[in-house]
Amino acid sequence: KSSKKHYNCDHSKINFSDKKSAVNSINEWAAKSTDGKLAEVTKDVEKTDGAMIINAMFFKPHWDEQFHHKMVDNRGFMVSRGYTVSVQMTHRTGLYSFYNDKTNKLTILSIPLAHKKSSVVFIMPHQVEPLQRLEKMLTKKQLETWMGKLQQSAVAVSLPKVSMEVSHDLQKHLGALGLTAAVDKSKADLSNISGKKDLYLASVFHAPTIEWDTTGNEMDTSILGTDKLKDPKLFYADHPFIFLV
């Protein structure tokens, strides 16, 4: 009742004395919550003496304008300079927010999702390279700078179809974000959950599964063949990139 009242969520009991059973229960819940898209959140539970937060999500963008269903083909995706794999690539030309950062040798593309209330932002190096350099640049200030320089342009976009799942234990990152008391046995106060002050946050798992393809709203055909799409810029995602939602 307390969980429902204070956090608007349901909870269930798990027998952590049997780790195998506990892991199976967690993964079964995640699979059920994502319609079977996420088969596994974790292989092990290290700490069994505290509360656990598990976030499982399935995300599939519905593009504001769909890609061409009949223009999906197999292309090479360069994982590294010496390793290329075959992927299904989707294509379309449209009006998008675009910026070519020549100084940092990056291209930024923003593709709106349905109803234009959110978007997926792609950040791709000009050349094939490991993403560590780009990851180090991802500060709030830098992102705001890039977003401020986006301009609507005609862009010929080629994106690989994506189906991926990842799982992260966020516990080690919480302290850096300022969440310290809840993960400390001596300081935590989660009594609104348990009714006692002996409960602390032992683990935080975040496990998303992501898919995207050509699916989206009907294309705006009124601009086809007009000057608005003349001389489009190119965003050809055939090597590693970062995307933000």
UniProtKB/TrEMBL annotation:
GO CC terms, sorted: endoplasmic reticulum; extracellular space
Listed GO biological process terms: collagen fibril organization
GO molecular function, one term: serine-type endopeptidase inhibitor activity
Keywords: Glycoprotein, Signal, Stress response
Domain Serpin stretches: 1-245
The keyword Chaperone is assigned to this record: no
Record-linked Pfam families: Serpin (PF00079)
InterPro entries in the record: Serpin_dom, Serpin_fam, Serpin_sf, Serpin_sf_1, Serpin_sf_2
Protein family (similarity comment): Belongs to the serpin family.
Listed name of the protein: Heat shock protein
Organism of this sequence: Sebastiscus marmoratus (False kelpfish)
